[in-house]
Automatic annotation (TrEMBL), chain A:
PANTHER family: CELL DIVISION CYCLE ASSOCIATED PROTEIN 4/SERTA DOMAIN-CONTAINING PROTEIN 2, SERTA DOMAIN-CONTAINING PROTEIN 1. Pfam families: SERTA. InterPro entries: E2F-SERTA_domain_protein, SERTA_dom. Residues 197-207 have a biased composition (Basic and acidic residues). It comes from Macaca mulatta. It comes from the Eukaryota. Residues 38-85 form the SERTA domain. This is SERTA domain-containing protein. GO terms for cellular component: nucleus; sarcoplasm. Residues 189-211 are annotated as: Disordered. One of its GO terms (biological process) is positive regulation of transcription by RNA polymerase II.
UniProtKB/TrEMBL annotation, chain B:
InterPro entries: PP2A_PR55, PP2A_PR55_CS, WD40/YVTN_repeat-like_dom_sf, WD40_repeat_dom_sf, WD40_rpt. One of its GO terms (molecular function) is protein phosphatase regulator activity. PANTHER family: PROTEIN PHOSPHATASE PP2A REGULATORY SUBUNIT B. Gene3D superfamilies: YVTN repeat-like/Quinoprotein amine dehydrogenase. Signal peptide: none annotated. Belongs to the phosphatase 2A regulatory subunit B family. SUPFAM superfamilies: WD40 repeat-like. This is Serine/threonine-protein phosphatase 2A 55 kDa regulatory subunit B. Keywords: Repeat, WD repeat. GO terms for cellular component: protein phosphatase type 2A complex.
C-alpha cells in the first residue's frame, strides 16, 4: 500500500529496485505475487472493483463521477475476462467465475436489500426531484419540453423493469445457484478463487454462464436505480 | 489596527527561498492560532478552495466546515521593508451550513467547493461561494467612519431628554476602527439535482454558470428564482450513463463561449449563440488514447479534474491524473503541450486505485503572463512548468522543509538509478498529503498553496513583475 511513507535505507532500496515494478502493488502476503500473470491480476482487480461499486452504491449519496469511473473500469475488466481463450491455463478460468460466484452469492443479501429499498423509493424520489426542473426550464421556450421528456422516459423505462424484477422476486434471480456452496466471507475470495476448484465442480457448470450476464444485469440495474434516485455524494 | 469579524490578525513568519527558474520567493506560513475554535486541527479546517480576486489584493479560501476566510494584501511600506505586501486576515464568515434534505433523507455538506470573485464595480467586493447544492453571493464592505453627535439620541443610542437639548448640532462622521462587514445578497438554491463542481462568472459581469455532474445552468446575478439549463448530458436511461461533467469555465473575453470537461478526458467548447441548449459542442477536444500506455485505468487517469482558460483566452489548461496539458483553441485533435506531473506513479496505478487516490482531483493554474503553469501533487509537493524554457521544478509546501530566511530548494523524486541526497523515493511519498488547490496571483509572482488545513503564500522578492 502506498498510503504510509516508509523510509528505507538506501541499500534496501537499491536491492528492491530490480523487483518487478508490476508486482509492486501486490501485498507480500498475496498469493498471486509469485505468479503475477495478467489474468490473475484481473480477477483481484475485478473483486476490488465490485467491492468499490458495492461500497459506492451503499452510500446515501454516491459520488457520481466515482461510480461511473468504477463501473466503466469494471466493464473493461469484464470484457477482458470474458474470452476464455485469452486467459492463461488452469487456475484462471475457474477462478474468475467462482470468484464472481462467491461475491454474488455472499453479497446478494446486502445487494438485494439495497435494491429493494432503491426500487421502493425510486418513483417517490424521482417525482420529488422534478420540483426544480420547471424553474430551471423556464427560459428558452423549447427547453421545458426537452426537460420533461428525459425524466418521464426514465420513469417509463424503469416501470416495466421494476415490475419484472419484483414479479420474479429478488430471490428468483438467484434461485438456480446453490448458495450453500458459497458460504464465504465477502472478502475471502482472493485466496479462495486462486485454488483450482474441483469441489466447486457440480454447481459450477450452470453457474458460470449465468454469472457474467447476471452480474452485468445486476450492475446495470443498480447503477440505473441508484444513480437516478440518489444525487451523488460529496466530492473527493 | 485591523479588527475583523471573528478573525484574528496573524503574525507572519517570513522565509525566503530561491528557485532554479530564476525567481526567488519568500513564504508566509500562517500558523494556526491557539484558542480559536476554528483554528483547531479538525477535519472542518481542510481547505477546499483558494482564489485570488481580479487585482490580487484579496485572497479567499473556503474550507470543509463551510467557512470563508479572506486575506488582504497589506500595502508595501518603506517603514517595514520586510513586510513587502504580505497577506493578513481581512474577514472570516460562515458561508454555508450543513443542511438536511428531508425529502430525500440526505445531508447536504457545507463544504465550500468553489469561490469565484466578481469584478469589482464599486467600493464593495463581491464573491460567489458554493457548496454541493446552493450558490451564494456575498458582499464585503468596509466601514471606517461612524456618525457622531446626534441631536435626539446620545452616544449609546438612548433617546435624550428633549429638555436638555439646548442647541442643534450637525452630526459628523468620525473615523473608527476599520470594520469589515459581510452579508449574503443572493442565494441561488434548488438549481441542481447533482453535486455542483464548478462556478464561473461571465465576462459580461451579469451572468454566471454553475455545473454539476450532469447539467450546467446559467444564472443572472440578480435573479435567484430561475436559471437556464444550457447543458444536459443526463441520458434518458440512467443505465446508459458513462460520462459526467467534471469542470467548466467561461471564456475570459467572449461572453458566449464556455468549455466543460468530462470524466472521459474530453473538452467541449460551446457557443451559447448557436442554440439555447448547448448539448452540441462547437468544438470537441480529445486526445486519442496512447495504445502503448493502455491499461484498465486508462479512462480513470484521463478524467479531467480541472480546466482553465489562459488569461489571453487563446489556450486552455487541463489537469488529469498524471499530466497537465495545454490546448490551443484552434486545434482539437491533441494538446499542443503535455507535461508529466508524476509519471512515476504510472506503474503504481493499481495500488492507487485500491486506496482511491487515483480519483483525487487536482487543480491547475496559469501565471499572469501564461508563461508558467502550476499544479499540485502528493507529499505536499507542487510542480511548476515554464512553457518557454521547458524547465520544470518540484517544490514542497511544509513547515519542516523551510527554514527561516533560507532558500527553498527544489525537490526531486527518484525512481531508481542514481539517488542524490535529499531525494525522495517514490515509496516514501505520503499520499495523504495532497495539494489539490493552488492559485496564482493575476499579475505578480505570488502563489497560494493549500496543503490540507494549512495555507502557504509564496511571494517573489526579487522579481515582482512578470517575466
Amino acid at each position: 500500500m502506498l498510503s504510509k511513507g516508509l523510509k528505507r535505507k538506501r541499500e534496501e532500496e537499491e536491492e528492491k529496485e530490480p523487483l518487478a515494478v508490476d508486482a509492486w502493488w501486490l501485498d507480500p502476503g498475496h498469493a498471486s505475487v509469485a505468479q503475477a500473470p495478467p489474468a490473475v491480476a484481473s480477477s483481484s482487480l475485478f473483486d476490488l472493483s465490485v467491492l468499490k461499486l458495492h461500497h459506492s452504491l451503499q452510500q446515501s449519496e454516491p459520488d457520481l463521477r466515482h461510480l461511473v469511473l468504477v463501473v466503466n473500469t469494471l466493464r473493461r475488466i469484464q470484457a477482458s475476462m470474458a474470452p476464455a481463450a485469452a486467459l492463461p491455463p488452469v487456475p484462471s478460468p475457474p477462478a474468475a467465475p467462482s470468484v464472481a460466484d462467491n461475491l454474488l452469492a455472499s453479497s446478494d443479501a446486502a445487494l438485494s436489500a439495497s435494491m429493494a429499498s432503491l426500487l421502493e423509493d425510486l418513483s417517490h424520489i424521482e417525482g420529488l426531484s422534478q420540483a426544480p426542473q420547471p424553474l430551471a426550464d423556464e427560459g428558452p421556450p423549447g427547453r421545458s419540453i426537452g426537460g420533461a421528456a428525459p425524466s418521464l422516459g426514465a420513469l417509463d423505462l424503469l416501470g416495466p423493469a421494476t415490475g419484472c424484477l419484483l414479479d420474479d422476486g429478488l430471490e428468483g434471480l438467484f434461485e438456480d445457484i446453490d448458495t450453500s456452496m458459497y458460504d464465504n466471507e465477502l472478502w475471502a475470495p482472493a485466496s479462495e478463487g486462486l485454488k483450482p476448484g474441483p469441489e466447486d465442480g457440480p454447481g459450477k457448470e450452470e453457474a458460470p454462464e449465468l454469472d457474467e450476464a447476471e452480474l452485468d444485469y445486476l450492475m446495470d440495474v443498480l447503477v440505473g436505480t441508484q444513480a437516478l434516485e440518489r444525487p451523488p455524494g460529496p466530492g473527493r | 489596527m485591523l479588527v475583523t469579524e471573528g478573525g484574528v490578525p496573524l503574525v507572519p513568519t517570513c522565509k525566503k527561498w530561491g528557485l532554479e527558474m530564476g525567481l526567488s520567493f519568500f513564504s508566509k506560513h500562517l500558523p494556526i492560532q491557539e484558542g480559536q475554535p476554528w483554528a483547531l486541527k479538525t477535519p472542518a479546517d481542510i481547505i477546499s478552495t483558494v482564489e485570488f480576486n481580479h487585482t490580487g489584493e484579496l485572497l479567499a479560501t473556503g474550507d470543509k466546515g463551510g467557512r470563508v476566510v479572506i486575506f488582504q494584501r497589506e500595502p508595501e511600506s518603506k517603514n517595514a521593508p520586510h513586510s513587502q505586501g504580505e497577506y493578513d486576515v481581512y474577514s472570516t464568515f460562515q458561508s454555508h451550513e450543513p443542511e438536511f434534505d428531508y425529502l430525500k433523507s440526505l445531508e447536504i455538506e457545507e463544504k465550500i467547493n468553489k469561490i469565484k470573485w466578481l469584478p469589482q464595480q464599486n467600493a464593495a467586493h463581491s464573491l460567489l461561494s458554493t457548496n454541493d447544492k446552493t450558490i451564494k453571493l456575498w458582499k464585503i464592505t468596509e466601514r471606517d467612519k461612524r456618525p457622531e453627535g446626534y441631536n435626539l439620541k446620545d452616544e449609546e443610542g438612548k433617546l435624550k431628554d428633549l429638555s436638555t437639548v439646548t442647541s442643534l448640532q450637525v452630526p459628523v462622521l468620525k473615523p473608527m476602527d476599520l470594520m469589515v462587514e459581510v452579508s449574503p445578497r443572493r442565494i441561488f438554491a434548488n438549481g441542481h439535482t447533482y453535486h455542483i463542481n464548478s462556478i464561473s462568472v461571465n465576462s459580461d459581469c451579469e451572468t454566471y454558470m454553475s455545473a454539476d455532474d450532469l447539467r450546467i445552468n446559467l444564472w443572472h446575478l440578480a435573479i435567484t428564482d430561475r436559471s437556464f439549463n444550457i447543458v444536459d448530458i443526463k441520458p434518458a436511461n440512467m443505465e446508459d450513463l458513462t460520462e459526467v461533467i467534471t469542470a467548466s469555465e467561461f471564456h475570459p473575453h467572449h461572453c458566449n463561449l464556455f468549455v466543460y470537461s468530462s470524466s472521459k478526458g474530453s473538452l467541449r467548447l460551446c457557443d451559447m449563440r448557436a442554440a439555447a441548449l448547448c448539448d452540441k459542442h462547437s468544438k470537441l477536444f480529445e486526445e486519442p488514447e496512447d495504445p502503448s500506455n493502455r491499461s484498465f485505468f486508462s479512462e480513470i487517469i484521463s478524467s479531467v479534474s480541472d480546466v482553465k482558460f489562459s488569461h489571453s483566452g487563446r489556450y486552455m489548461l487541463t489537469r488529469d491524473y498524471l499530466t497537465v496539458k495545454v490546448w490551443d483553441l484552434n486545434m482539437e485533435a491533441r494538446p499542443i503541450e503535455t507535461y508529466q506531473v508524476h509519471d512515476y506513479l504510472r506503474s503504481k496505478l493499481c495500488s492507487l486505485y485500491e486506496n482511491d487516490c487515483i480519483f483525487d482531483k487536482f487543480e491547475c493554474a496559469w501565471n499572469g503572463s501564461d508563461s508558467v503553469i502550476m499544479t499540485g501533487a502528493y507529499n505536499n509537493f507542487f510542480r511548476m512548468f515554464d512553457r518557454n524554457t521547458k524547465r520544470d521544478v518540484t517544490l514542497e509546501a511544509s513547515r519542516e522543509s523551510s527554514k527561516p530566511r533560507a532558500v527553498l530548494k527544489p525537490r526531486r523524486v527518484c525512481v531508481g538509478g542514481k539517488r542524490r541526497r535529499d531525494d525522495i523515493s517514490v515509496d516514501s511519498l505520503d499520499f495523504t498529503k495532497k495539494i489539490l488547490h493552488t492559485a496564482w496571483h493575476p499579475a505578480e509572482n505570488i502563489i497560494a498553496i493549500a496543503a490540507t488545513n494549512n495555507l502557504y503564500i509564496f511571494q517573489d522578492k526579487v522579481n515582482s513583475d512578470m517575466h
